[in-house]
Amino acid sequence: MSAAERIAQLTDQLNYYNHRYYQDSVSEISDYEFDKLLEELSALETQHPDLKRPDSPTQRVGGTVTKEFQAVAHKYPMLSLGNTYNEQDLRDFDERVRKGLNGADFEYVCELKFDGISLSMTYENGVLVRGVTRGDGTRGDDITANVKTIKTLPLNIHSFTHSTTQSFEIRGEGFMPFSVFEKLNRELEAADESTYANPRNAASGAFKLQDSAETARRSLDCYVYYFLSDEEVFETHSQSLEALKAWGFNVSPSWQKCADIEAVLAYIAEWEEKRHTLPLATDGIVIKVNSLAQQRELGFTAKSPRWAIAYKYKAENKPGVLRSVSFQVGRTGALTPVANLDNLQEDGKGLWLSGTRVKRASLHNANEIERLGLLLNDVVLVEKGGEIIPKITGVNTEARATRLTFPIAWPTHCPECATELVRKEGEANHYCPNERGCPPQLRGKVEHFIHRKAMNIDSLGEGKIELLFEKGLIQNPADLYDLKYEQLLGLEKTITDDETGKTKKVSFREKTVENILKGIENSKTVPFKQVLFGIGIRFVGATVADRLAAYFKNIDALMAADFDALRNVPEIGEKIAQSLVDFFGDTSNRVYVERLRAAGLQMQTDDLPVVMESNALEGKTILYTGTFGDLSRETLEQKIAANGGKLVSGVSGKLDFLIVGEKPGSSKVEKATKLNVKMISIEEFLAMIG
Ligand code: IVH
What we know:
Layout: H1 3-24, H2 31-47, E1 71-73, E2 83-84, H3 87-100, E3 108-114, E4 117-124, E5 127-133, E6 139-141, H4 144-147, E7 168-175, H5 178-190, H6 199-207, H7 212-217, E8 221-228, H8 237-246, E9 256-258, H9 261-274, E10 282-289, H10 292-298, E11 308-312, E12 316-329, E13 335-343, E14 351-353, E15 356-358, E16 360-362, H11 366-372, E17 379-384, E18 391-395, E19 422-423, E20 430-431, H12 439-449, H13 464-470, H14 485-488, E21 492-496, E22 503-507, H15 510-522, H16 528-535, H17 542-552, H18 555-560, H19 563-567, H20 574-584, H21 587-599, E23 621-625, H22 633-642, E24 646-647, E25 657-660, H23 666-674, E26 678-680, H24 682-688
Parallel strand pairs: 2-11, 23-24, 23-25, 25-26
Antiparallel strand pairs: 1-6, 3-9, 3-10, 4-5, 4-7, 7-8, 10-11, 12-13, 12-17, 13-16, 14-15, 17-18, 19-20, 21-22
Helix pairs in contact: 1-2, 16-17
2-(butylsulfanyl)adenosine binds at residues 79-81, 111, 113-114, 118, 134, 173, 225-226, 286, 305, 308, 310.
């Protein structure tokens, strides 16, 4: 037998045994024999790397080291689901479905809503070729090598199906089973390393490991719940789940067909407690219309399907003890009190809620402490829902009879820089006024500056800013533009993630430094409105910055504007106007802006001056909705202006006409219909301006 034949034979044989073991719990051969065959295959693959098949079971144990995960576009966007929280919401959903299907008969499938990491797997010719994270829904990280370590994901479905379906995508939830999570945390604890707060964080960390052999050791699993293909393979969702199960995928047996909304409600009640017996955390259920033809008929909104919805169980709550309060200083100098919590027994096990160890809860500000009437050592009710930060929802005042409690003292001085705090009239928060010296404020400003909606320097995330501060290389955002390659190369630091408690090494190697400098360089082309947002003026959020940039067009006009001039800008109120006057009234802020200008940042809008083409639209107010094929929004707006028209922001009775494109916004169209506003197509509009 040739090497190629033997490799193929071993690959098929081992995949078959894996499938029997993980799906059917049957061991057809001993572990010893299995390992022998795997070793033989592995040795052959080392000798003939070109003969290694993409579905080789040797990948289950990893061995691929990925330096940086590639971002890849999803063929089908990964959408989210609408949420419901009570019976009425669900009945409303049911009503919308009924209407959408014009009263036709339909049924639902109910599933648990698994709280893990959403994954998308692509199969080509029956072979798993790609595994990608959700990312932003349109693009995710290619983590194929890590996904292949999931033993319940078939690498090749051919041996188990005669299906002619060749290429498809599978969506599922990657997770770390509770049992694995507990073992991992015990090991970390024994090694004196920090533990993960919950299985979801542990799974997320494991999927992002660069060494897939390490991922393989974390025994990740995946429940699949969605089949997508260009071909019409199934008639119903339940058929697809049954087929997936038969092809060797791990489909949680908790799903059920439900004839109507009453049956859905019964399913919800049944699983409220039973869900805690599953190997992973769940935070609700997902209700899907079973017929795929009916799913197509109902379609999607921009964000989520109309044929499915999630129902969230009530957040779990439990009593805990308020041990102490710490105070965090944010970017603006505001102090946020944070409650440090423990379990009632205070036996070292900690307070656990919905599968997560809760150590802290935000108290927002002094008002919140007063509102709750909190005292130190109080017994408090703690609530944790899904991914939301835990909340303290109440105090057990009766428990005070048997406990010593103490008032919570606000610090008089900043816990970070010892400057005396100030409390502005009418504001609940205490502030540290040391804007230019207080470390978390300085760091916060740089973190804000590099934000995606500001200068978008994503190569500086995750602890890198901290390192730059620590080495004294930056004090404020303008310093970023003075950084040199030689200064950065070789810098190193170990950081601890506040949420997960995991430690991680940040080190500036060649590639990292190149990326950082490239990110900084690229930020010089970021539009003025984002620069304005990034500068970090109090109360100037992204939307306000957008308005100001559109109105003043450049930084000099904005800096020259006095309070009244600023108040004249639509949607700019007194608070924002005053904040701008204060900011630019401070010489050091002007110096900061000048440094940014000198570095080459965009300090003016690059709107093209409008060249008039005609006055066909003279005096007309116009709005558009939807998309127009190749014609971009910018070009359309330019055409409206160039022909004398005025673009407005909303539908009103005074609107002259609404241009309706593909996928128009339903509320705009509805309102225009109601108000009898003329609606025209893009062709009609183009004809109007000749
Ligand atoms: S179906 C078009 N089914 O929930 C949407 N999603 O908010 C298809 N999820 O990102 C999703 N369990 O990660 C579906 N049984 C289930 C699910 C589930 C958990 C997650 C999924 C998605 C999010 C949607």
